[in-house]
Design goal:
The longest helix has 23 residues. By secondary structure, this protein is of the alpha+beta class. The strands form 2 sheets. It has a 5-stranded mixed beta sheet with strand order 1-2-7-5-6, with helices on one face. A two-stranded antiparallel sheet has the order 3-4.
Length: 151
């Protein structure tokens, strides 16, 4: 699948990759695997904040997870030169800022997973953890980290 053409077909606009906030890098290739640092949910106005089950809904979280996906695609494009270098999405760890007892983190992280399948087709399907947490950096609503295999 031509991921770059698929991005255009879907009318997706990738944001600028984030500026690193510490002594780490956004992506690192080891063999055929690319490990991506976690990225928090952002849009053109800044960090998407809140707590699912408190001041935010599952739908808000889903949209925030999708925003994380767009950011991770931007990071991959910058790191690899083209999203067409991606052979498959291997693994995803998704973290949802949620109230104690919130039992639906997978529904939130589906925003990320659904986007990967839209862009990469079957190669976008991945193993995953979806966790509810009590806080995230900068009070973000969602943070996602992933591993991809390159061709």
């Amino acid at each position: 699948m031509d991921a770059e053409n698929r991005i255009a077909e879907l009318g997706l606009v990738l944001p600028a990759p984030p500026v690193m906030g510490g002594n780490y890098i956004s992506a690192k290739t080891v063999g055929q695997l690319v490990y991506l640092s976690g990225c928090v949910s952002t849009d053109a106005n800044g960090v998407l904040t809140g707590t699912v089950g408190g001041d935010r809904t599952v739908e808000d979280g889903y949209a925030a997870a999708r925003a994380c996906g767009l950011t991770q695609l931007a990071v991959l494009r910058k790191h690899l030169g083209s999203l067409n270098a991606v052979a498959e999405i291997v693994s995803v760890n998704g973290y949802v800022n949620a109230v104690t007892g919130f039992a639906e983190p997978p529904k939130v992280i589906n925003g990320f997973s659904d986007l990967m399948v839209e862009v990469f087709g079957e190669a976008g399907r991945h193993v995953r953890a979806a966790l509810g947490v009590s806080t995230l950096p900068r009070h973000a609503l969602v943070e996602v980290q992933m591993v991809v295999r390159i061709a």
